[in-house]
Backbone:
């Protein structure tokens, strides 16, 4: 029987050139976070179906690859729905497994716990260009730290990692707080139960502009006046902590007392510790996920305008699983997006090793070849990358292919010395 | 709803201490193979069910985690067997996906192609101590090279990787050839159709000893004389290529002409290029898998006696999928076994970085804390690992826990300088 040569629908084989870039990015991320005291962890790719369907994943729960029960547990005759057939599934994100992991192991983990989790996740999304059904996620979380030290560390570590990956590009961190967003709405005259809608409209600023946002707000039944006031507050972007403190004064009576100062401190500390990070208080930043409770942030690569990392504080999520609230703050790096940017040459990779190909003529005496192998071993021990390969009949084509694979230096060995 | 805290049956969460060892082993493997010109590749964890059930996996095909069809494709009402419900499954090894990958991409890969594939595989085995249903495999294969250069490179690269992982342990490579095993049986008087059984009996030498093997051979209906002659040949272990050449002479007429010389050359070349590798021609080495066609080899860690890597030549396998035979030779490193040895202290890990924990008293002024963060950033840029964390009330317990996590140096920061 012939085998199916293509990968399953929506998933991809990764060729050597892309693997080099993926490994390079992974190494930079791991080394950086490790230097900040983050600990790598791993959870199985397969998760209990009950956990996956526990309403923590939003729409992702519709996209689960479910795993069939095995042996006697699979009772096809009496199965009525597909959920009778599956006892587990492939994880659709790393946050749910992290919550389970923390609930399971908190007693043997340091507090606060700084976790780095890198792994594949699966979503049975409609296949489309550049989006795959198996992809890598890369999450950093600090669990058990209620102070803004968590935010400061996450921003410093993430911008350090991104700067190591793309040393020639600048990065821009936009920061906000869900509490400020809420106070902005309340102080503008919106009611408590309108806030959710206000966030959804405000989140579209990038796409539909000020007029569009205003139109949506008015459509929700808000007064013209409230909408204008809210839009006015959204303009108070600032690159200094002073701007945040002023916003705090404007929102006095609507904002918890320490909230603005908390954010201002984060800005000051990041600037003090990392002078090269461009940090912007941005009252238009909302971020989609419903579970954020405080600070939110997003990192964009300058010049490209796309977000390459984002996250925030979500103090109420772990409690839903463990029954006890645990302060939590996290960042997710857009691993696949960064790989795409590197593949398309959007940023230069630093420090590639020179790769040499040593080609030998067919029929070279075994002893001479052994000598060549020995020399290659010595050079590799010095840190060089050396491929030893038999010369093909079409040497020119062979070298072209090797060049495509990144080999820049060639050495040739012939039976007769004269040919060299 | 409460979440299930334990991982799914038979799979495990990996704690930080084990992750450090896993990452260390992975890095050594990747760097070493890369220096030999191997290219990392990746295939999806999910594979077509038709491929997984194509009889290349032996008993592993009974242990597949099958993935449920989705949407309209899942027709529960008309499904008669479980295979009507699944369109894919989790891979049970990396060799089958490698064959599919090579069939799919050969045109854009160099020839010969030197592949390094590291990834998780899944087998729904009966859960037992130390064996898990998700585990890591690490395979190195050279595809498209019919010469013994492939074997030489694989042995050199693998022993180099193992020596880097455990620099203080010796390694022993045992090597044989399926053709020699076959010729040994034929020259002893066994018939062609008895060879399979002879291999199975010979493979048990470790466990049941010479008498046991002889008893099994005689039980199969072999003559006492044939069994004795075969057992005599099995004793011709040798640490020099001369021993292999002598075996070739003993088997003249039964062994293809170049076979012994081919193996002798491998031994000479490996010794020339890597003087520290102990290489033993071992006529008792069989290795279980049926697909080997030529050289076979196994690496053991000296002192522990367990095999940590094994492999061989399998020139007929890829042809079963592509319709065109492709010479192939590969090594599989026992990744999980090596991690276990390291976890149990069986070999010392080299070059661990010193980890420092900087603890600050609660309530330290924000500006002072920012200065500490800045200093930590500078030290990290120099390559140090520094955790900055708030001091817990029970500082002693906190430090004990951090020590367990590998932090050896501590620095403390107080509000009042005097307390230091």
Residues:
């Amino acid at each position: 029987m012939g085998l199916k040569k293509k990968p399953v629908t929506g998933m991809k084989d990764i060729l050597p050139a892309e693997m080099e870039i993926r490994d390079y990015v992974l190494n930079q991320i791991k080394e950086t976070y490790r230097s900040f005291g983050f600990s790598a962890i791993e959870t199985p790719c397969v998760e209990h179906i009950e956990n996956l369907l526990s309403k923590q994943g939003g729409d992702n729960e519709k996209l689960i690859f479910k795993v069939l029960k095995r042996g006697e547990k699979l009772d096809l005759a009496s199965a009525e729905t597909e959920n009778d057939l599956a006892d587990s599934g492939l994880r659709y994100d790393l946050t749910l497994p992290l919550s389970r992991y923390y609930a399971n192991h908190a007693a043997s983990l340091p507090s606060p716990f700084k976790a780095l989790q890198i792994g594949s996740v699966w979503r049975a999304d409609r296949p489309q260009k550049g989006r795959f059904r198996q992809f890598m996620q890369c999450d950093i979380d600090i669990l058990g730290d209620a102070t803004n030290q968590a935010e400061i560390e996450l921003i410093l570590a993430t911008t350090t990692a991104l700067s190591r990956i793309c040393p020639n590009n600048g990065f821009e961190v936009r920061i906000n707080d869900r509490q400020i967003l809420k106070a902005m709405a309340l102080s503008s005259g919106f009611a408590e139960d309108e806030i959710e809608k206000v966030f959804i409209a405000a989140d579209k600023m990038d796409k539909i502009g000020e007029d569009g946002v205003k139109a949506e707000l008015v459509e929700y039944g808000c007064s013209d006046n409230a909408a204008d006031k809210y839009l006015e507050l959204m303009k108070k972007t600032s690159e200094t902590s002073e701007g945040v403190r002023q916003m705090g004064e404007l929102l006095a009576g609507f904002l918890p007392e320490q909230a603005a100062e908390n954010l201002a401190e984060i800005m000051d500390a990041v600037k003090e510790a990392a002078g090269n990070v461009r940090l912007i208080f941005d009252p238009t930043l909302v971020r989609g996920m419903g579970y954020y409770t405080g600070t939110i942030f997003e990192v964009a690569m300058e010049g490209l305008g796309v977000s390459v990392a984002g996250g925030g504080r979500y103090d109420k999520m772990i409690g839903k699983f463990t029954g006890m609230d645990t302060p939590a703050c996290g960042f997710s790096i857009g691993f696949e997006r960064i790989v795409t940017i590197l593949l398309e040459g959007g940023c230069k990779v630093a420090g590639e090793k020179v790769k040499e190909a040593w080609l030998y003529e067919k029929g070279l005496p075994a002893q001479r070849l052994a000598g060549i192998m020995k020399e290659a071993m010595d050079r590799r021990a010095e840190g060089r990358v050396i491929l030893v390969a038999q010369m093909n009949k079409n040497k020119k084509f062979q070298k072209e292919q090797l060049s495509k694979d990144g080999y820049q230096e060639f050495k040739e060995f012939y039976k007769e010395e004269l040919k060299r």
Notes: The mean pLDDT of chain B is 90.
